[in-house]
Biotin carboxylase (Anaerocolumna aminovalerica), 447 residues
Amino acid sequence: MIKKVLIANRGEIAVRIIRACREMGIDTVAICSEADKDALHAQLADETICVGPAPAKDSYLRMDRILSAAYATGADAIHPGFGFLSENSKFADLCKKCNITFIGPSCEVIDKMGNKSEARKTMMEALVPVVPGTKEAVYSSKEGKEIADKMGYPVMIKASAGGGGKGMRIVTSEEEFMHHFETASQEAKNAFGDDTMYIEKYIAKARHIEFQILADNYGNVIHLGERDCSLQRRHQKMIEESPSPAIDDKLRKEMGETAVKAAKAANYCNAGTIEFLLDENNHYYFIEMNTRIQVEHGVTELVTGIDLIKEQIKIAHGEKLSYKQEDIKIEGHAIECRINAENPYKNFTPSPGLVTGFHMPGGKGVRIDTALYTGYKIPANYDSLIAKVMVHGCNREEAIAKIRGVLGELVVEGIDTNIDFQYQLINNKDFKDGNIDTGFIERLLKK
Ligand code: ADP
């Protein structure tokens, strides 16, 4: 078995992975930047190596230093978490070359699914429904406009290398196309160093429904049901739940089988996610595959009882899947709210700084994944996610009541957070009725 795992990440996900390793009797090595020496993950791991200064490009993204840290400590595997190097095929390849197990899929699969227009092509060939749009990548605004004019507006311009909602623009008319194409491709170039674009039909009033996949090295692939991540701001998720209030057992079965087919077409191994958009007529379309553990994996763990991080480690070690599709039972209802250090009333500006007080609620069916503690100084250099509040109830109504209680009780002092904003969302009548789509929050903010 894997004996020592280096966690190439920080914050709550690093803590989550350290805890899973500890349960499995696996030693842990944390890496940290100079700004993170007091961070919880750096304190909890068996060993901690500082890999560079605060900016991520000088520390958490430094493959050479991270691999040296793995060598120096004798780690035999690396868990990349999410963000940072988790979807970097070069890093997965370097791990392999250094004889270190990368806890994730192969570099070939990361490459294939990381390029979103390539992934679309793979899915089209496998007869997985994709959003109507371009078959090939688009290299110029002129070429793009001709395609969009033919397709009819509104359309969505997207970056092949995109992620985190970046390099994406909705275009509602012919006149706007050139301007939006230029700004989206410039954003893509700055963020990903690649301005290859593609065009999709814009799906109005869509829901974001994604399926959790587990796949081993022996061709066994299962899904663990869906997560409804329709509550988004600027194409970034804010609240996730499982199961989705929008789909019935028949559609769940069909979409789940399609997700498994998609993962097989990608030759997938380890934990991954197939993302779909679901339109008002219950037609669903593949949008992308994420080749890593997701922020919102906890809601799936709550309704299935399966520990996804442990499964990732077992699969990476070469074990066969411990479950068959018929073993997977979805029980009750789980909801997650992402708590960010930001001010929703000042255009969601990040609010790093000293946490002067912290009270974490608890109770039956409550799970809070966080790396916060009183006296911790949140650095300004990284993502603003500070806690994931999750609940598990016997049904959606109970889960909503539970998370309302948790958000009402949660206290983070010294910095601004979105706790009150999340509380309002949970109490919104349309949310309670399950009547939401990906544009819900933006419409609410405009009121
Ligand atoms: P990223 O990789 O940046 O997260 P995705 O392709 O996963 O981008 O899309 C993120 C979100 O953007 C989706 O959940 C959805 O809300 C919106 N979106 C993406 N493509 C479309 C589309 N064709 N029509 C409508 N909304 C879309």
Remarks:
- The two ends are 55 Å apart (CA to CA).
- Residues 352 and 379 are 6 Å apart (CA to CA).
- The chain is about 35% helix and 25% strand.
